[in-house]
Amino acid sequence: MLSLNAGEFNKEKFKQVLHYIIWRCEGIDSAGKTVLFKLPYFSDFNYYELHEEKMTGETYRRIDHGPAPLHFNLAVGELESEGKIHHFDKDFHGKTQIKYKSLIEPEIDLLDESEMAVINAVIEKHGCMNATEISDLSHEDIPYMATKDKCSIDYELVFYRDPITSVRVYGPDD
To answer: 80 lies in which domain range?
Structure first.
């Protein structure tokens, strides 16, 4: 599989990742839009830390509530217009939560085994977190912390992560 060059965004692959995450998390009450911002972030950045290449090439910006994918609205809009997902509002502990439901099983043909392993690990570890918990965790991630407000988060910063968010086992030569 070809790796992505710096800055090369693969929209269709990002859509597959996002649709797959929506499909896997749709039964989780806390998995609203904020959680769906963070799960692709951790998937992309964990993959980069482990494999030193980008999975989707998505750009994530530092906003107040944690990293946000630049193309999220574009991707969900296209997935909705393609009849693959739909969104709805739901009351979640007295607040309106934007939820997404998959209408069909997602296509994952652009994702290889190692990418799926990372995405599934992220979902298993963080998928049941609520918006506050996953936002708080993302605020402790060095790439987010080292980025100025409203700026793009540099993937290379994963190599400075603390043990709380790092997924790579580093040896003495790393």
So the answer is: 11-160
Q: Which residues of 126-145 are buried (b: 16+ CB within 10 A; e: fewer)?
A: bbebbbeebbebbeebbbbe
Does 6 fall in a domain?
A: no
- Residue 167 counted as domain residue: no
Judge whether 143 lies within some domain: yes
Query: Considering the entire predicted model, what is its pTM?
Result: 0.93
> Is 158:174 a contact under the CB 8 Å cutoff?
no
Q: Which residues pair with 67 in a beta bridge?
A: 62
Q: Give the model confidence (pLDDT) of 23-41 as tens digits.
A: 999 999 889 999 999 999 9
